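Anyone else keep sequences and structure tokens together like this?

Example one:
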Amino acid sequence: MRKRLRAARNAIGGLRRTHAEDALNDRLVRLVLARGARRVGVYAAIGAEVSLDLACARLLAAGVRVAFPRVHGPDMVFAEVPGLHALVEGYRGIREPASHASVVSSSELQLLLVPGVGFNRDGRRLGQGGGHYDRYLAAAPLGGPVIGVAFEAQVVEEPVPCGPLDRMVDAVLTESALVTTARWTGPGVA
């Protein structure tokens, strides 16, 4: 399934990708503002993952505090940055906050956006396989919902393989919809 969903994600290119990312970033900004979230956990895209850079810049300009993951071996923390310029190359070449950036507790994140190779409509997430997000989600109480981010082509109807350590998301945000699960509360986004 990972191979098939990566291929579907990689096939989204050119203007189609630009339009899809623009729509998803617009939807994300509207969602954050509609929920009144003041501190949001995001990620720095790698490879063909959906980039959230446009939304991050707009959220920071609107006064929303933005935190990115920083990896320490098997563990991950989120740390705030004043802007995308404050990200440095880190674990596996992924952009992350510098070591001096202030760590934010999971309970302070009012929304947490997580990448994935694929999702289903029940909120099951297929990650890269390293388990960083699953361990983070299991370690501490979160201050708000967890939202998977993916292109529509990465959301499947079929069951996603899920083990006892895998953590589900409350909704999946795509370029065309916010796919909510039974765990979702609060406003959606048009």
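And example two:
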Amino acid sequence: MIKIISCTKNEEGKIEVVFRLNPSEAVYKNPKHKMVPIIQENVDVKLGELIVGTEVCNKSGFPNEYTFIFEQFVRKPKKKVDTEEPSVKIRRSRKTEVTGG
């Protein structure tokens, strides 16, 4: 469906993906959020959130090349979690009933 032309990192740390649509018999028109998984399948780099993109269509009159800009995917550091829980013993103390006398 698409052919990746280039995947580069710009000076701001964003990832620019330039791709070309493969001509096919069927005409399709996809919004930008549906193109993100298709681009991710064809790129070796893990992409972050989409910043810049447009609707993609292979009809005549539309461009053949598109440029999408993504944020760089950053893994969040794992938080250290205490796995050992302190043991707590609960005692019930019951007072004995005192009968008067």
